[in-house]
Design brief:
Shape: flat
Largest sheet: 7 strands, mixed
Helix content: 40-55%
CATH class of the largest domain: Mainly Alpha
CATH architecture of the largest domain: Up-down Bundle
Distance between the termini: 40 Å
CATH topology of the largest domain: Four Helix Bundle (Hemerythrin (Met), subunit A)
Strand content: 5-15%
Structural class: alpha+beta
CATH superfamily of the largest domain: Formiminotetrahydrofolate cyclodeaminase monomer, up-and-down helical bundle
């Protein structure tokens, strides 16, 4: 899976669409990113722009956006209701999938350094990217706003983290920029079967981090309690990183609790929903559904779906689409309007066409294989054999998890099934990766060789592509071998009515391993690095030797149970 980060720059222009469009156009021209949303505000004279992609592509798009904004926005003429200090006022980076916050912080500093050095814009790093605790809060970094910038950047305590520390005419035009790494924020509303804002608020106060004000005696009318310094005391809510308030929505004729989840790792959406249900029921109320505002990372709904499946004691070894369906129904996300995952989940919005074979019907895949084209070839077919073996093993796990009388074993089989479906998904990716590897070799051989420099580059690219064409089928071997452990466990302990399926799964896994090995060997012939070749052939033979041993054991179990 690719690493994905989201970038949400706020530019200090919300009225001139020509300027706004000129800035968003540079993002759209950047390879590897997708512009998701542009939200201009006239009163604030500010536009929120959202785009996403792999880290290096996002950093390039952010740089181009800041560069263009410096060119077309003059902060000396800017007026608006929202606090601001630069043409690009803030530029937060947000980890979305397969990337840690620590990595995102590194990318934030990499971007900040480039902006400071190449564009001459002062940069302050805030939130997780802050270099000291005084700069964690954006409001502190932005104190004094644009008008106080000349004095601020020359002061000892507020020198920029990157960029110039002396005010000049360029800074007068561009202002400063605040760059952050921060958690994903989710705007989430829960629907309550009441028209009472007060009752909705009481539930929100139970959950939100700020909780409610402490009072003497009655919560409604009691005296507000304070500490010795005169600060108001509060009863904290159940969740950290959660803001919440109740309101009445005339359009729907119901009250809602509007939540902001500022850290989905510490405060999962499904737990907020369930606790809201619990606190509503105590008050004689009922949650009827909920709604997500804007986009959401896939992980949020996968985690929610798995949470509700576990409560039902159902296997988690099912495709992501089915897990998401369970999440939507459990959370009631389709109560007020249809919830379309393909339009609301970030990863789905940025799906590329990198895996055309895996998306084909089995008939189309067979026809494509039998055509005159040399790809897909044996490597892709080997990977697909592995897919089928993993899928069969997962099926046995699911049938076992739901077998009548085996209710106490559902979690055991669910965990094995999850391992099986993980192998299945890896191998599905490898179906296309093997064809990509072949195409890369063909592309390398088509490079020009008219002079010594071109010839040297061509040889390097051929060798690089050849090594990849060895590594991909070897990965097919390794992943297919991983699936054999699941097959073994299903043959030993799975639903006895599916023992033949475990046997077929083993034959598929062996076909995948032996087929992939042929592709390893044929590509090894063309690699100049013979030490690498020897290492790969040895490792491949080790896998085959272990496969032979496990195959004998599994097929013996299958025959005995048949």
């Amino acid at each position: 899976m690719n690493k994905l980060i989201e970038c949400v720059p706020n530019i200090s222009e919300g009225r001139d669409l020509e300027i706004i469009n000129s800035i968003t156009e540079v993002v759209e021209k950047c390879d590897g990113v997708r512009l998701l949303n542009v939200d201009p505000g006239k009163a604030t004279n500010r536009t929120v722009i959202t785009f996403i992609g792999e880290p290096d592509s996002v950093l390039e798009a952010a740089y181009q956006l800041i560069s263009k904004s410096k060119e077309v926005i003059d902060m000396s003429n800017h007026l608006g209701e929202h606090p601001r200090m630069g043409a690009v006022d803030v530029c937060p980076l947000i980890p979305v999938s397969n990337i840690t916050m620590e990595e995102t912080v590194d990318y934030a500093h990499k971007l900040s350094k480039r902006i400071g050095e190449e564009l001459g814009i002062p940069v302050y790093c805030y939130e997780k990217a802050a270099k000291n605790k005084e700069r964690i809060n954006l409001a502190a970094c932005r104190s004094g706003e644009y008008e106080g910038l000349e004095k601020k950047i020359s002061s000892k305590n507020w020198k920029p983290d990157y960029g110039p520390i002396k005010y000049n005419s360029s800074i007068k035009k561009s202002g400063a920029t605040a760059i952050a790494a921060r958690d994903f924020l989710i705007a989430y509303n829960v629907n309550i079967n009441t028209t009472s804002t007060r009752r909705a608020n009481s539930i929100a106060f139970d959950l939100r981090e700020a909780g409610r004000i402490k009072r003497e005696g009655s919560r409604l009318n009691g005296k507000i309690l304070k500490d010795k310094k005169g600060n108001i005391l509060r009863e904290p809510g159940y969740f950290k990183n959660l803001k919440g308030i109740g309101w009445y929505i005339e359009e729907y004729g119901i009250a809602q609790i509007s939540y902001n989840l500022t850290n989905i790792n510490t405060t999962p959406l499904h737990e907020v929903f369930d606790k809201t249900c619990e606190r509503a029921q105590i008050r004689g109320l009922r949650v009827t559904g909920s709604e997500l505002i804007g986009l959401v990372p896939k992980k949020v709904l996968i985690d929610a779906g798995k949470y509700f499946l576990k409560k039902q004691k159902r296997s988690l070894a099912i495709p992501d689409e089915q897990i998401i369906h369970i999440a939507i129904k459990s959370l009631g996300l389709d109560e007020l309007s249809e919830f379309k995952p393909k339009e609301r989940i970030i990863e789905y919005l940025i799906e590329t066409k990198n895996n055309p074979l895996a998306k084909m019907s089995i008939k189309d895949f067979a026809n494509e294989t039998s055509s005159e084209s040399p790809a897909p070839g044996g490597g892709s077919i080997a990977a697909y054999c592995g897919v089928l073996g993993s899928a069969l093993a997962t099926m046995v796990a699911n049938l076992s998890a739901h077998k009548r009388g085996w209710d106490d074993k559902w979690e055991f089989f669910s965990k094995w099934g999850e391992r099986g479906i993980s192998c299945q998904n890896k191998l599905l990716d490898l179906v296309d990766k093997d064809t990509h590897a072949f195409n890369e070799i063909m592309n390398a051989y088509s490079l020009p060789k008219d002079n010594a420099k071109q010839l040297d580059l061509r040889i390097q690219e051929i060798q690089k592509a050849t090594k990849n064409a060895i590594n991909v089928p070897f990965e097919i071997m390794k992943t297919s071998f991983e699936s054999i452990e699941v097959i073994m466990k299903m043959a030993e302990e799975g639903n006895p009515n599916s023992i033949s399926d475990a046997g077929v799964a083993m034959h598929c896994a062996r076909a995948a391993i032996m087929g992939a090995f042929l592709n390893v060997k044929i590509n090894c012939k063309d690699l100049d690095d013979k030490k690498y070749v020897q290492k790969m052939i040895k490792s491949a033979n080790d896998i085959i030797s272990k496969t032979d041993t496990l195959e004998d054991k599994i097929l013996k179990i299958v025959e005995e149970k048949l």
